[in-house]
Design brief:
Structural class of chain A: alpha+beta
Strand content of chain A: 15-25%
Order of helices and strands of chain A: HHEEEEEEEEHHHEHHEEH
Oligomer: homodimer
Largest interface: A-B, 31 and 31 residues
Strand order of the largest sheet of chain A: 1-8-3-6
Shape of chain A: elongated
Largest sheet of chain A: 4 strands, antiparallel
Chain lengths: 225, 225
């Protein structure tokens, strides 16, 4: 990625870009790194300030992790999205730890937290943008929370499978029961039991080698209502 | 509350107050109401824009409500706190519905959402303050979520009882099992079973008339670790 491409990316991504002085722009660019993350890499583990991550290709997963290793997926980020919660030093009001993994081979631009923070502190437009991006994820997380707290398992699993299929542009979901349980913050046994029920109803089929195939999308959609 | 007292309250509460023009201050004050809410009143039900609520006395409870009536308490607000999530028109990034009840007889100042929004849109300091207040609650909610998802029931109940006792400056928690279950997003049976266990261990005692009395605070604290 050459300098011109990086400038264009920043212009498109940060509405405050044109409020920056030339020297701020220089610092911002110098503090940015073009990084390729292998599928399955842990990118941020809640402690240090990893910086603001722009996703160019691939996908990242943000999740909570309990002391005993239980995970709950909060949301995923796709090309064009931005990960703000990984910039702990920018968001001093955020006191919880999130973990970020690359779910596929992912190409990202990571803007250094210190350089970003320095600008957000001085330029109100940058501060407002930053807070708004972070706050918009609040709603995503509340949605997940409401699903987990209030929704029945069949409905949650139906929504999950339809989302996965849509993201992959395929009728097949290539995840193990264990992985699905992890993403849904549930137990493998619970997921397996529900998948077995879906299969017995002819809604899906599954095998170890091929993953989960959606056979009757209409009925799966009915379950989400 | 006279005009001078209201001005002083706003000066103390809103760090952007002195950035406002005299005419903005006037509008802000005219759009504000001094309201007394009876214990148990529903103040905000997620739909309309109730406005920004400053708590002068009493306490408010924010919670999620499922379609079938299940509640999960997100956090409570006490004198000096501010409720920003009830001003839906100010926070366009917040797309989930919260409910707000007064838990005690509460005295509040409610600043009209439209007047507030108009100022937050024009004055960057006001916008930044608003977003920061809202975002700081994100962390509270994540804490609740992690408790519910990851923590064992004995630990959660121990924390709940200690918090309640501290808030009431008393060793007695005057809540029914049903109410505790509601606040914790759990079932009454689960709470009753755990309270019975705590009582059998001599940690608490309880009765219908007197509520729950903490007998051994040290052991209750040990449970929270």
């Amino acid at each position: 990625m050459n300098k011109q491409e990086l400038v264009e990316l920043f212009e498109d991504t940060f509405p405050f870009w044109n409020k920056l002085s030339e020297s701020d722009k220089e610092t911002f660019m110098r503090s940015s790194q073009h990084v390729h993350f292998k599928k399955g890499t842990n990118i941020h583990d809640g402690n240090e300030c990893t910086g603001v991550i722009l996703i160019k290709s691939g996908s990242l997963r943000l999740y909570l992790l309990s002391e005993d290793g239980k995970e709950v997926t909060l949301y995923r980020l796709f090309p064009g999205d931005m990960c703000m919660l990984s910039a702990s030093c920018v968001l001093e009001n955020i006191t919880f730890d999130v973990f970020v993994d690359s779910e596929e081979n992912s190409e990202c631009i990571v803007v250094g937290g210190c350089a970003y923070e320095d600008i957000a502190r001085r330029i109100p437009e940058a501060k407002i943008f930053t807070l708004e991006v972070a706050l918009s994820r609040f709603s995503d997380v509340m949605w997940v929370m409401q699903q987990i707290l209030f929704m029945s398992m069949d409905k949650r699993l139906a929504i999950f499978l339809l989302d996965e299929a849509a993201n992959a542009s395929s009728d097949t979901v290539k995840l193990t029961h264990e992985q699905i349980a992890k993403y849904m913050g549930s137990a493998r046994e619970v997921v397996s039991r529900m998948l077995k029920y879906f299969a017995s109803e002819g809604i899906i089929s599954y095998s170890r080698s091929d993953g989960i195939k959606i056979l009757d999308k209409r009925r799966l959609r009915d379950l989400t209502r």
